[in-house]
Structure formats: C-alpha cells, structure tokens
Amino acid sequence: MTFVQLLNSFFDRSVSAFLTQIRPFGAIAAIVVCVGLILGAAPVQASKLSGGDRLIARQPSTEVRVSLGNGSDALKFFPDQFQFVAGKRYKLVLNNPSPQKHYFTAKDFADSIWTQKVEAGKVEVKGAIHELELKPGAEAEWIFVPMKPGTYSLRCTIPGHAEAGMVGTITITSDSQQA
Ligand SMILES: [Cu+2]
C-alpha cells in the first residue's frame, strides 16, 4: 500500500466515522462536504467545523500567495518565508510577474506534504510534485496538506538565481504547536 493510498483510506474512514456520528444530519453533512469540495476556498477555519481535521482532504483551503520575482526583475520570492500547519489544507497560488522564468523548488518540503493537485491553466496534475517552473506571466495553484513538521529550504534552480537571493524558508509546524 502506498503512502497516498494509506492517507486516502484514513480520510475515507474518518469521513464515514464523522458522518455516522452525525447520522441525523447525514444528508446536510454530505451537502456541506460536497460544497467544500467544489468551492475549496471558503475562508472558514476547518478547526471550527464539527469533525475538524477528520475532513482533512475536503476541508476549505487557506490561500497563500507567492510571487516568483517581480516587475523590476528582482531575484527574490515574495514572500520568502512560509509557515504551514500540519493537517490543514492549503492552496498556494504562485505567479510570475517578472520578465524571465523561475522555478519554485522545495524537494524536502514536497516530500513532507500530501499533494492533492496542482492546477495550471486548464491542466490539473495529480501525484508527487517537487518543482514548478513558471514562465513570465504564468500562474499555478498547488493544493496540498502539510504532513511532516520541519524547516525546509526553497530555491529557484535557474543558475545564479539562488546565489543572488532567490531562496526562502518553509516551515511546517505541528497542530499541537499552535496556540
Ligand atoms: Cu529564478
């Protein structure tokens, strides 16, 4: 059984356990789950929903934005520090407003999350993602759930860019470290 299959079975079990607990409201809960799936980005904290983290793969996502470079061609990520909480669902919206292409490369971070999908244009990519290349003007959305707490490095792998400062830090904290 692969890691993702394991996760999926965990999610499925948790959701059915959740639905069983609130059986009288089962139909309503199912609708809420579907709306969550479709909208994905409602600004509701999952921890405030009944069932909380058990709805991990279906909970509303928290949107975080990052720009790779800027209009005056600075070799930087904006922002360059990120903090995510394990078990929450995020939508990282990446864009490249600069005149040249850049990479968002964070291999150890990518190994520490469960990627639900990456969407770019009309294409949706599922499975493990380690690096995203964004051409000038490109935008992509990376939807994931952080799994393993730690501090991970981010860099652009175009020669010279990381050396010029196109680096960053991504931190995953565990749920219990949150106040
Ligand atoms: Cu770059």
From TrEMBL:
Coiled coil (residue ranges): none
Xref: Pfam families: Copper-bind
Keyword field contains Transmembrane: yes
Domain Blue (type 1) copper: 65-172
Oxidoreductase among keywords: no
Keywords of the record: Copper, Membrane, Metal-binding, Transmembrane, Transmembrane helix
Segments traversing the membrane: 25-44
Source domain of life: Bacteria
GO molecular function, one term: copper ion binding
Protein name stated in the entry: Copper-binding protein
Native organism: Oxynema aestuarii AP17
Lineage, opening ranks: Bacteria, Bacillati, Cyanobacteriota, Cyanophyceae, Oscillatoriophycideae
